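Notes from hallway chat w/ T.B., transcribed later so I don't forget. T.B. wanted the structure written out for a chain they're using in a teaching module, and asked if we could keep both sequence and structure tokens in one place. Agreed to drop them here.
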Amino acid sequence: MAVTARKYNPGFLSVDELVAIFCVRTAEYESLVEALRECSGSANTHQIVIGPRGSGKTSLLLRVAAEVIRDADLSARFFPIAFAEESYEVSTAGEFWLECVSRLADQAPHREGDVDLHRTFEGLRTIHDDRTLEDRCLGVLQDFADREEKRLVLIVENLNMLFRDMGDDDAGWRLRKVLQTEPRIVLLASATSRFDKMDDPKEALYELFRVIRLQPLEKEDCAILWQTVSGRARAPQTIQALRILTGGSPRLLAIVARFGANLSFRELMADLLDLVDDHTEYFKSHLDALPAQERRVYLALADLWKPANAREIADRARLGTSQCSAQLARLVDKGAVEVSGGSPRRKLYYLTERLYNIYYLMRRARGPAPLIDALIRFMEGYYSTDELKEFGTRMVREARRHDGGAPAIYRTAFQRLVGLPALESHRKEMLSLASPAFTHASSEFSVTTPAPSTAKELCVKALALAEGGRLEDAVAIWDEVIRRFGGSDAPAELEQVSLALVNMGQALGRMGRSEEALATLDDAVLRFGGDDGQNQPLAVATALMSKGVLLRDLNRHADALVAWEEAARRFRGSKVPALEAVVASALVGTAIALIELNRHVEALEACDEVLERFGKIGSPGHHGEVAVAMVASGHALYALNRVDEAIGAWGAVAERFERSDSPGIVEQVASALANIGMAHSRSGRPKAALTALDEVVRRYAASDAAVLREVVARSLVNKGNVLAALKRETEALASWEEAISGFEAGVSPEVAEPFAAALMNSAAAMHNAGRSGEALQLWVDVVERFGAGDRPELLTEVAKAQKNRCTVLEQSGRYEEALAVWQEVEDRFGNSDVPEWVELVASSFLQRCVNLVKLNRTEEALATCERAVERYEGSDMPTVLESVAKILVNKGIVLEGSNRHQEALAV
């Protein structure tokens, strides 16, 4: 049974309706309720749900409120007070508590003899002194809580907007004081994003909340929500298309769920126009919430429609590439834009919620063509292949009702519809049906002009789709080429099959389907790598090279080495220029893989072969491979402790290619200079190191190229390290801060480690200089940027950052905040078996016990001690057992201080 979906205000639903329609975000719901159940001592866990508009924050919070009402245990202990979704009239701390009394008056049960809360509210409204108003309102709330013997759960939406609009700078601190000292009040809030009051150590709400982040719905949850709202099930592939269309936004998914599967063309066009009109307020509010520059970039991407790189978007937005990249990074962080395909160094961007493309296109439309284009794009995401075919058939029947031929709008729409890749196999049938209806129309498609069907035509079409970012559609066509022509004897068709296999393998790799990609590339080598007359040497060579690159990116360097060595072995004797280029690349790949495998002598041999075969000054076609080989040679020499030879090799790169303007070669020159600086630094030659690193910054600091920005930022990190070793702390800090700015302009996975190092080094320097607040913020930055990943070297930095935060907070007497950070440590590292993290979590229990005692929260301290002992008493790690022993000592001291002498003695 379908549940009626309100436009976008779940606040209109009854408790029963809320429970009935709530079907996703169940893990987050259970987490919120569980934390609420644990609020029993003198302090509460205040929670905030963060997610973009339409992500389900309101439904989630109201579902928690409904559970408080329905669950016997919760209803006996808590009373929910739900604020309006937007509390526009709140501008001071006193008005916040006045709003709370107003909502309580509306929502509290009315019993004979009880205080008339509405009359109380009217009296409070006349108070003009804000602190008096706050005290009086709090008194009303506390009295109600005492009468009911319940804690009040304040459900406050859009906390970020509420604080943004407050004119009272002191309001946050006054709210914090109440929440930390008043056990009768629990705050359950939401926000569209993190905000300064939360993130700045100097602000009031810093570390006050347990944070729940809402991510886009996964495919399975989209299917559940769709069926709940519409009453109809959808095929998995259609659900995935709908997820892409809506970006996994529950609100947008619910909006499109009302569309029927049996509408006529005119009805569907009208319904889509109605959808845009009905939800213009929602779409527009999303855009209005973006800062001007971000909105400009967002709309440029909406206008482009296809996945686009930063330069394309910058051109459309009329901004500089660096400026555009910075705005894109912010939009990605907000979840408004996603990275779709491309490479780490040349990312492609797409709107997360594709429905905004349609909204933007239709609002800007002049004439029918853009509307039809928007409609067909919507249908492509909304309907299955069978439904698209049926829709096309209905269009033909509608068109036949018009005398004198079909209207132009039908012809245009039908042309766009039958051109969809999903209808490739049905196109001929649909065109044959359409012929009578469109006899008076000139059409791109007709029975006498069939859609592309030869192997070459299909491959050309697939390549165009891939270049437009439609990789899934391209893969489907390449797969068709392989199926239809794979058994052919015609050399021309077999050539297209070989190209289809290679291109399909590369596309699957870009889509993250690595195992399928490797299997496809292996198939290309197996089919065409023999000597039976079907050999396609260029396809085989490209397949082996692509396989090596994919395996390298998966950190499977031994397997990558096998692929590259096979490519070099097969084609080493070829004089065909294209195959010679493959051999050069394969030898370079071999050298890099050998370096990763610590086989440095063999790596040098591979580099030497590249230089011997392709290193002649008169061979410009292979200069790129030569430059890479020279840089790799330096790395191998350095690993063999032949430092001066390594510096010489890198210096030769800079000297030989100094005047080159090839982007790839310029990158190698920059890398070589940076490596020289690093080598001098580690060899105890700081002056030479600074000279080389300064040269990198001088040459490339103004570049827009992502790789060069990364090299400059790395060099600035190393420069800061050298200056710090020379006790030139102020200059070191300036260098690290400049590096951080460079990294933030465009962070890629390759630079995560030096970025983390720059943040950690800057934090340490600031702390040593007495700037602890700024140091705390940098440690928070490390945690937020790298804490969710799984790379051990980065998580080690995260663990250090958390430990440093706690130390500084405890030294400053900010024990409540330190407790929250130690809880984060347990949440992130508590399930790990890595020894250093096990030790950290064990020590976190000890520190929490100490902090709780200092806050006079004795029972919580004892409970924490017991949980630690239960968890670690069977450990065989000496450092962990040492922490347990200290915890037991602290437990005994706490018990003794509470006059529980026998228990203390037992401990």
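Follow-up for T.B.: Confidence is low (pLDDT under 50) at residues 1-8, 439-452. Might be a good example for the class.
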